[in-house]
């Protein structure tokens, strides 16, 4: 059959229209999946942001995010860094994934490869993924972010200091003798000192799985992390992406670039937070510039409460009792802001209980990804709460656990419902026993123990805790261990 010029022209036009329609359909499908940016800062206290009542630290960009989104006042993380990141990535309590400790350099342990992480789930829905900043879930190659669902990684495999001070700190340089003793005891415990000095290996800055610098200038790291984040956003603005930006600030030791040093009323600590705030502003501005602001969910939170004060360093938990490492509210209740222009009504505040374990199921729901059915995920989908369809928490209870590097020992635990919080521990005979009981509705500062006055409340919470802990032990999953961590 011969085709005349008119028929050929019509056929080409039809093919072109089909291709345009197909391309538009794909683009529409991609746009139905929101980009997701998770900004996770280190050791930020509940009272360290303007929108959470800080009188001394100005955070205009984060405050604007809160005014344009929803701000949580009962949002929880784990008490210390590594466990917090484990439950963030897996949607499961850190005790369920056997990750109740902080990894040190050259650790034999990390997040198990059998765990399904946020980026792994989102990749099944067509997302590009990148982690920038602090990982702290294992530094051996098999534990790195690129083995856990991230296409790209730029940052540190563990903490930039290895608690409590940077690896170059010499104990004899410290004036505080009590602090010196703490450091020496901690150093002896983990076996990382020689003659009173830290002997951690040099801090590695990595790109994917390659070390690109040793002991980089940390004064510039917030800026460098921000530049990498913007580069990733620019390169992936036409497809759904997940960016996990985990700043190392304001974890001690503190650093701020020259453009922020000396700018706050809270010294270097406030300067560091002001620079993180600037970083948030840069990211929001880039989203607007690229025209993808309305299709991007931005979440801001912290891994735990503020560092206990070492000299002038350390943050504020505001009205809350305790700090990092504690199961009191100041150690585990953290700021949390969700901003998604056009989807989340701005200027809202909620006291509904929520947690970092809820991010995985929430992100999966928004992306249309399927959560694995072969394991227990402790988190729940927050989307109805975020969109204003519900006002109450999807949780009946939240649970909190001590750990090897928390001030609360591993056998200390706590359980909370919408009003009451109870501390528990195993007694000498191994039985679970109530310790303290607080009415968080009336006493968020946990000043007044009501255990003796309300045995009916403590008995109810004890029964719920016993049921949960029995299930937890039955369905606990292993931590990753070198030479035994296989899919």
From TrEMBL:
Its cofactor is Ca(2+). The lineage of its organism: Bacteria, Pseudomonadati, Bacteroidota, Cytophagia, Cytophagales. Pfam families: Sulfatase. This is Arylsulfatase. It comes from the Bacteria. Residues 34-369 form the Sulfatase N-terminal domain. GO terms for molecular function: arylsulfatase activity; metal ion binding. The keyword Cytoplasm does not apply. Residues 1-30 form the signal peptide. It comes from Echinicola strongylocentroti. Belongs to the sulfatase family. The keyword Lyase does not apply. Keywords: Calcium, Glycoprotein, Hydrolase, Metal-binding, Signal.
């Amino acid at each position: 059959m011969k085709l005349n010029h008119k028929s050929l022209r019509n056929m080409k036009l039809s093919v072109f229209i089909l291709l345009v329609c197909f391309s538009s359909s794909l683009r529409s499908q991609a746009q139905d999946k929101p980009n997701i940016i998770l900004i996770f800062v280190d050791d930020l206290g509940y009272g360290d942001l303007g929108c959470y009542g800080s009188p001394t630290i100005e955070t205009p960009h984060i405050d604007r995010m809160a005014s344009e989104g929803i701000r949580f006042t009962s949002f929880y993380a784990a008490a210390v860094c590594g466990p917090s990141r484990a439950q963030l990535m897996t949607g499961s309590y850190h005790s369920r994934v056997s990750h109740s400790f902080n990894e040190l350099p050259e650790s034999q342990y990390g997040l198990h490869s059998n765990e399904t992480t946020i980026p792994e789930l989102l990749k099944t829905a067509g997302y590009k993924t990148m982690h920038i900043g602090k990982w702290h879930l294992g530094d051996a190659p098999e534990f790195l972010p690129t083995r856990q669902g991230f296409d790209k990684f730029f940052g540190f495999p563990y903490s930039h200091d290895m608690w409590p001070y940077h690896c170059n700190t010499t104990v004899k340089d410290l004036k505080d003798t009590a602090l010196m003793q703490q450091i020496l005891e901690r150093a002896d415990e983990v076996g990382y000192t020689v003659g009173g000095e830290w002997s951690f290996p040099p801090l590695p800055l990595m790109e994917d799985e390659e070390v690109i610098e040793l002991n980089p200038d940390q004064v510039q790291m917030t800026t460098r992390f921000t530049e990498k984040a913007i580069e990733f956003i620019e390169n992936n603005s036409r497809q759904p992406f997940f960016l996990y930006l985990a700043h190392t600030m304001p974890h001690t030791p503190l650093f701020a670039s020259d453009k922020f040093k000396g700018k706050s009323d809270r010294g270097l600590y406030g300067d560091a937070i002001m620079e993180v705030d600037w970083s948030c502003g840069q990211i929001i501005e880039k989203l607007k510039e690229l025209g993808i602001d309305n299709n991007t969910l931005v979440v801001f939170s912290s891994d735990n409460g503020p560092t206990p004060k070492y000299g002038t360093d350390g943050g504020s938990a505001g009205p809350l009792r305790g700090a990092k490492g504690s199961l009191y509210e100041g150690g585990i209740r953290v700021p949390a802001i969700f901003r998604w222009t056009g989807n989340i009504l701005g200027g809202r505040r909620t006291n509904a209980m929520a947690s970092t374990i809820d991010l995985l199921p929430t992100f999966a729901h928004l992306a249309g990804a399927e959560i694995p059915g072969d394991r227990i995920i402790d988190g729940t989908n927050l989307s109805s709460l975020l969109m204003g369809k519900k006002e109450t928490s999807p949780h009946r209870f939240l649970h909190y656990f001590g750990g090897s590097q928390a001030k609360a020992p591993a056998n200390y635990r706590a359980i909370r419902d919408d009003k009451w919080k109870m501390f528990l521990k195993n007694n000498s005979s191994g039985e679970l026993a109530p310790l303290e009981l607080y009415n968080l509705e009336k006493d968020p500062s946990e000043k007044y123990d009501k255990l003796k006055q309300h045995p009916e409340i403590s008995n109810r919470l004890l029964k719920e805790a016993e049921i949960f802990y029995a299930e937890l032990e039955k369905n606990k999953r292993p931590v990753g261990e070198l030479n035994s961590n296989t899919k």
